[in-house]
């Protein structure tokens, strides 16, 4: 029974820790290495041998597509089996990864156990040319979709603003007019659900957005929305951010319903 060497590439530190910890505990895994961006990943691929590459798409310096494009050059003899694990989920991106040799495309959030199962299948499967072995469908629930946006934005789940912001997006998604009554209805509604005050909700949401901007994930958000929504000095207000995310998710759902 073969043992596999794994390289996990993602700019989210907590995600790297979770995935590397899970994979390191599996008996089929010989070694686990990590990289925080595409440039570091390519350096490690040149220097060592890996059987599996778990790859995010949105990263600084060199993104996931850049790594895929250079993979055959840095590993000409025996490239690793690639699983893309990303919050980016449009069909053109899936096709591009497919054409560049990815075996699976999995959409965050996804459990480490599910990624591990696909990793074993990819490592043990026949090499593919221009075709995915599988595509894990995008998350269906609204909460999962909001969580995927927060993963890209770099908003950590342990802060209160994360939960308040998620509730605010959910409320505006179901009733878009609530964004026009943010101080009179939206904040008090969130506060009532969590047993706190509207002013604390407002401050916590502002802090969550500030965390995302401090972490420099603006380019990730721009990539998620498909155009340059914000620059480094263009931090949105609470209402602007809630409305932007809710509107994006609502348009995606309407587009999906029209396609059915």
Ordered list of secondary-structure elements with their pairings:
Layout: E1 4-9, H1 13-24, E2 29-35, H2 38-47, E3 52-55, H3 64-74, E4 81-86, H4 91-99, E5 104-107, H5 112-124, E6 134-135, H6 142-153, H7 160-174, H8 182-194, H9 198-214, H10 218-225, H11 238-259
Parallel strand pairs: 1-2, 1-3, 3-4, 4-5, 5-6
Helix pairs in contact: 2-3, 6-7, 7-8, 7-9, 7-11, 8-9
Please give a quick description of this structure.
The chain is 55% helix and 11% strand.
CATH H-level superfamily title of the largest domain: Response regulator
Choose one word for the global shape.
elongated
State the domain count: 2
Order of helices and strands: EHEHEHEHEHEHHHHHH
**DSSP E strands, number:** 6
CATH class of the largest domain: Alpha Beta
**What structural class results from the helix and strand content?**
alpha/beta
Characterize the main sheet.
6 strands, parallel
Mean pLDDT: 85
Approximate helicity band? 40-55%
Strand content: 5-15%
Whole-number radius of gyration? 20 Å
Question: Low-confidence parts lasting 5 or more residues at pLDDT below 50?
Answer: 127-131
In the CATH classification, which architecture of the largest domain applies?
Answer: 3-Layer(aba) Sandwich
GO molecular function, one term: DNA-binding transcription factor activity
Modified residues (4-aspartylphosphate): 56
Pfam family, one: Spo0A_C
InterPro entries: CheY-like_superfamily (IPR011006), Sig_transdc_resp-reg_C-effctor (IPR016032), Sig_transdc_resp-reg_receiver (IPR001789), Spo0A_C (IPR014879), Spore_0_A (IPR012052), ST_Response_Regulator (IPR052048), WH-like_DNA-bd_sf (IPR036388)
């Amino acid at each position: 029974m073969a043992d596999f060497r794994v390289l996990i590439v993602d700019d989210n530190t907590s995600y790297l820790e979770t995935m590397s910890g899970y994979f390191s505990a599996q008996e089929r895994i010989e070694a686990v290495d990590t990289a925080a961006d595409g440039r570091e990943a390519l350096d490690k691929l040149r220097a060592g041998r890996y059987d599996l590459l778990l790859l995010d798409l949105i990263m600084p310096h060199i993104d996931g597509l850049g790594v895929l494009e250079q993979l055959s050059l840095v590993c000409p003899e025996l490239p690793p089996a690639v699983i893309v694990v990303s919050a980016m989920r449009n069909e053109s991106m899936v096709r591009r990864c497919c054409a560049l040799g990815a075996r699976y495309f999995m959409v965050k959030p996804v459990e480490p156990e599910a990624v591990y199962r696909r990793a074993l299948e990819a490592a043990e499967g026949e090499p593919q040319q221009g075709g995915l072995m599988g595509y894990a469908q995008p998350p269906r629930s609204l909460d999962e979709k909001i969580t995927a946006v927060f993963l890209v934005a770099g908003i950590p789940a342990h802060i209160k603003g994360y939960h308040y912001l998620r509730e605010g997006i959910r409320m505006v998604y179901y009733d878009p007019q609530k964004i026009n009554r943010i101080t009179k209805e939206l904040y008090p509604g969130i506060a009532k659900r969590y047993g706190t005050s509207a002013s604390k909700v407002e401050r916590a949401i502002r802090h969550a957005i500030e965390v995302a901007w401090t972490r420099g994930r603006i380019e990730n958000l721009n990539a998620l929305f498909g155009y340059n929504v914000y620059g480094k000095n263009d931090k949105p207000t609470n209402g602007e951010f809630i409305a932007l995310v809710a509107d994006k998710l609502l348009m995606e759902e309407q587009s999906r319903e029209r396609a059915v």
